[in-house]
Fold each of these.
Amino acid sequence: MTTAGDIMHRGVQWIPAHETLDRAAELMRELNVGALPISDENERLCGILTDRDIVVGCVALGHDPARVTAGEMAKGTPRWIDADADVSEVLREMREHQIRRLPVIQDKRLVGMISESDLARRLADDQIASFAEGVYARNTTTA
């Protein structure tokens, strides 16, 4: 059985919710990543901040990234997966919520992150195809 812990990228760092977006961008550059999990004061996941969030949700709106915090950008319920979860659960979670990055938690601590590139390196072609179809499929229901 392949688990989330087997395919995740280790060495992930939090960005505290009180930290500014300019600092988040610097940390992304230092770590060579496009997303950071956001932690509250108890080091619990309260969101994920992406480079796109900084550009589209802050800079493009004329806001100063030195004055906007990561916590202000956190929206919705953050999704995560336990390190011992089977890869089928990882794929289901990512497909169901149409997300491209999934934090991995073990004993209430952040231990890694699963991204599309992690999936591409570790999964069979049919699993990757199923993931891509689920995450990138357009909603075909009408209101």
Amino acid sequence: MLKSPNSTNRFLIIYSCITTVGLAMMLMAFKNVKETFDEISVKRINIVDDKGNNRIVIANEERTPPPMVGGQTYKRRFNPAGFIFYDEKGNECGGLAMAKANGSGFRVMAFDYDNNDAIGIITQEDLAGKNFSAGLMVNDKVPGAPLGSGVNRINLNTTNGVAGLQINGPDGKVRLRLMVDSLGTPYLETMDAKGKVVKKVI
């Protein structure tokens, strides 16, 4: 027996209503879903606040977002894989990065002021394994200064077997250097405002 056009229309309306209600129930069910996984493989994870702003991004090289500072987006010299931290305004404020560039491998952990790098821990070695370095960098902030205008004050590092501590003045120029070379020989140098060695103790 053939259905009348009116019966068909009523059927479609009922079907549409049931489908809509079903989809709405599914969305409500997944809104606050909590799942436990033993393993998950993804290319990027965004951890956001209640407003949807990124607070932490975990990504591979291809999915790493460009840096945003002061509400403006900039271009990275190269894209690393790792973690990126954001403040409540959405500005990048630190991270953990791993990358290869210019024939070297980098591992970096950094925390920033609002206008420049503050603390950085970095390891670097060339892909041939002949040259290496690892160290800690500490910068001063220059309040109200343009982006990237901080002053490097402390460097503690080892490079190809030479370990050293360098302390800079408020102008960023070296004033004190304490070193131990690859043969184990220690020495201390102090510099004047122009960077000239005024005293050396071995």
Amino acid sequence: MSVTHTEVTAEPAELAPCGQPHHPDCGIRDVLDRVGDKWSVLVIVELANGARRFRQLQRAIDGISQRMLTLTVRRLERDGLVLRTVYPTVPAQVDYRLTETGVSLTHLVKALADWSLEHRDGIAHARRAYDAQHPENEIR
């Protein structure tokens, strides 16, 4: 299966279990720690359209604080997904862009976004049905 494969199939993908004695760490936890949070995904989506300065990112990502954006781009830079470039100007200009590894991740993010859009109505329906059957456990 290629990273751009988005076709829904009836059979589950072949995945090795994580956290089992014979397979203690498949690496998925490290990846999910980084790209499993909404801010990282939103930064990656924004940078998929090209290099951005900090304030451009902040304006484009609704609800992100300056501190959270700073932490997010630092983590993405540390993981080799984002490149931070400081230009020798006064005042210094800084921009952020995806590395080659970061660009390769955009295909998976797009597949996830496509899946989300395709299944949004079904998930909303399932939630309503669950909440109707289990009003004491309603999750909001």
